[in-house]
Design goal:
alpha/beta; 6-stranded parallel β-sheet; 3-stranded antiparallel β-sheet; 8 helices; 16 strands; 40% helix; binds nicotinamide-adenine-dinucleotide
Length: 314
């Protein structure tokens, strides 16, 4: 069952790709595209409209922000993006300033809508969205490390020659340089990854794990250096979160969400495995962590809290 109306604020590379993916998956009956560059929004809407006879019925329109009232979900991708060599946290000041004006304008028109934040740094901006709007935590979510988790699973799958669908491993914490992987509970088809043998006698040892996590952390930078932006994988990750919401799946996804005493961490938005259903952001799963993983998650929380504190959001 598709959602009624989904508004996408910011129709650059990421916003346009999300619109395309939602359309392909039949996840919305109406897509509203909003960009401060009205020509860009209109061009994307027209281009997508020309697909409509060939996909599930959907009405695509470019509209000014004033016309998003009634949207069931608002996806925010507006803002500055990383230039080669920049970290996501380098964008915090610019994009928090943008959110201070943009978010109240959105929520004034769509107080009931589920807010899905994609702009970076996504953890800082998800926290900012909560603070700036006063919405309840279940109503505000960040795309978080759904993307990074997919990246790690695909890298592991390639290394062990198994389908990524059968690799279960979560990336948690900041969607950024301090993210960590939960190796202690990672498995392939119910076999702990640490016990898996593949090829002759190869195993995923500590060095291989560190290498795979490093590749995951560097993945966005590599894509940006090569083609200027990342768009396809984030659009599919966002569509997956939307799908769990629209279909009331109670799916477990590593979204960015407000933490309240998660392994002792509170009052910060970070990604941990969380239940997504039509009710919005549900329980955070109490995944067991090794001492090193718990310490890594706390360091990640400290890194994000330092930025939200510096920007006066605490
Ligand atoms: N969360 C993730 O995993 C993830 C992945 C990729 C990119 N991103 C982030 O998504 C954001 C967008 O990236 P992009 O590559 O699409 O950038 P882009 O520059 O192509 O697009 C940004 C768009 O936002 C629009 N915009 C700016 N201010 C606006 C406003 N007030 N109202 C409406 N529109 C506004 C711009 O006109 C532009 O079209 C960046 O912050 C980027 O870092 C996040």
């Amino acid at each position: 069952m598709p959602a009624g109306t989904i508004a996408i604020i910011g129709v650059g590379s990421v916003g346009a790709s999300i619109a395309y993916t939602l359309m392909q998956r039949g996840l919305a009956r109406r897509l509203l595209l909003v960009d401060r560059n009205a020509d860009k929004a209109r061009g994307e809407a027209l281009d997508l409209e020309h697909c409509t006879p060939l996909v599930a019925p959907v009405d695509v329109r470019a509209v000014p922000l004033e016309e998003i009232a009634g949207s069931e979900v608002v996806i925010v991708t507006a803002g500055a993006k990383q230039e080669p060599g920049q970290t996501r946290l380098d964008l915090a000041e610019t994009n928090v300033a943008l959110f201070r004006t943009l978010l109240p304008e959105i929520v004034r028109r769509t107080p009931e809508a589920w807010l899905l934040i994609v702009s970076n740094p996504v953890d800082v901006l998800t926290y900012a969205a909560l603070r700036l709007t006063g919405l309840p935590p279940r109503q505000v979510v960040g795309s978080g490390t759904v993307l990074d988790t997919a990246r790690l699973r695909s890298l592991i799958a390639r290394r062990v020659h198994l389908s990524p669908a059968n690799i279960h491993a979560y990336v948690v914490g900041e969607h950024g340089d301090s993210e960590i992987a939960i190796w202690s509970s990672a498995d392939a088809g119910a076999v702990p990854l640490s016990a898996l043998r593949f090829g002759e006698s190869a195993v995923l040892d500590g060095a291989a794990e560190a290498d795979l996590l490093e590749q995951t952390r560097r993945a966005a930078g590599e894509v940006i250096a090569a083609k200027g932006a990342t768009n396809w994988a984030i659009s599919v990750a966002t569509a997956r979160i939307l799908e769990a919401y629209v279909r009331d799946e109670s799916a477990i996804l590593t979204v960015s969400r407000l933490l309240d005493d998660y392994h002792g961490i509170r009052d910060v938005c970070l990604s941990v495995p969380s239940v997504i259903s039509r009710g919005g952001v549900g329980a955070a799963l109490p995944v067991p962590l090794s001492a090193a993983e718990a310490a890594g998650l706390r360091q990640s929380a400290d890194a994000v809290r330092a930025v939200i504190g510096r920007l006066g959001l605490l």
